[in-house]
Amino acid sequence: MQTLDRLIVILGTGGTIAGTAKTASDGVGYTAAQLSVEDLLAAVPALAGQRLEAHQVAQLDSKDMDFSTWQRLATAVDEHLARPEVAGVVITHGTDTLEETAYFLHRVLAPAKPVVLTAAMRPATALAPDGPQNLFDAVRVAASDGASGVVVAFAGRVHDATQVRKTHSYRVDAFESVDGALVARVEEGVVRLLGRWPAGEALGLARIAAPVQRWPRVEVVMNHAGSDGALVRALWGGGIDGLVAAGTGNGTLSLGLDAALRDAAAGGVKVWRSTRCDAGPVMDLPGLLPSAGALSPVKARIELILALLAEG
Question: Which of 12, 183, 286, 309 yields a CA-CA distance of 20 to 30 A from 239?
Fold first, then answer.
């Protein structure tokens, strides 16, 4: 059940949902992050009866998401959730790095109240923008009884932050739960729970308190035909703290890439194996470089950054 008297805080960060184009027929040649979060709410009159509070945390295209914005966003979310009158938080975001921000917030905050990220594939000026419906659904999720944790509400579906990935470059249903485990569906404003709300142990804001200039540098390298490890050696030579290898299949690596990664690991670089496949885990087998489990390469990178931050 959702109730209109629950206060939901909306935090805007920009993205396509706040983008505009010169013509309504242009769905790809737009400029992201042009409208304020108040503008987005004004386009959803169905939310008029809901208690809402809006704040602009950032205004950027999410392909340009950065550590400093993550710090500000995590702090803002934590502060608002600590207010007893706030039932949940909704974050408007770009789709490009939405899964990364969702996972980051999940690991840092693991909130008992709901934090719902939403976005759009079409700009606000499109003939049929998807942002207003997604924003409406996100607010309904945030106001739901029992809702908790970091989720993504998009195209009528609710995804766990650990599962969600952007799997299509153009369609309005661009996100999937990679192992098929949807949390819920939103149907005519009603949230139908299918699984469990995400839970976890919060690492806490202290983990990310260091100035971003001091955050560890972690990069992703990919295995592919002809991969010889030269990129790893270049990154290692330029100064790197961690590497995530997006291997083929079950995290497999070419001989050249594997050798370069092992050399880097011997030299003090933390190395994990993930997979470039859309879904599935990487098995942790004897004699192989450490596995990132079922994390995608970009989420494994976040996890490794957070682990290295703990080491100082």
Answer: 286
Q: Determine how many CB atoms are found less than 10 A away from the CB of residue 123.
A: 26
Neighbours of 232 (CB within 10 A): 26
| Residue 62 marked ligand-binding | yes
Q: How confident is the model at residue 312 (pLDDT cuts 50, 70, 90)?
A: confident
Domains and CATH numbers, the chain: 7-193 (3.40.50.1170), 216-311 (3.40.50.40)
Q: What is the pLDDT of residues 135-158, one digit of tens each?
A: 999 999 999 999 999 999 999 999
In which order are the strands placed within the sheet that holds 149-154?
52-60, 7-14, 86-92, 114-118, 149-154, 157-160, 184-187, 190-193
Q: Is the pTM of this model over 0.70?
A: yes
pLDDT band at 190 (very low <50, low <70, confident <90, very high): very high
pLDDT at 3: 66
H or E segment at 274? strand 270-275
Which of 278, 15, 3, 4 minimizes the C-alpha distance to 134?
Answer: 15
Residue positions annotated with a catalytic role: 16, 95
Which residues fall within 8 angstroms of residue 51, CB to CB, at 6 or more apart?
A: 4, 5, 6, 7, 8
95 is in an annotated binding site: yes
pLDDT at 10: 98
Give the whole-angstrom CA distance, residue 23 versus residue 34: 15
* Alpha-carbon span 122 to 19, nearest angstrom: 8
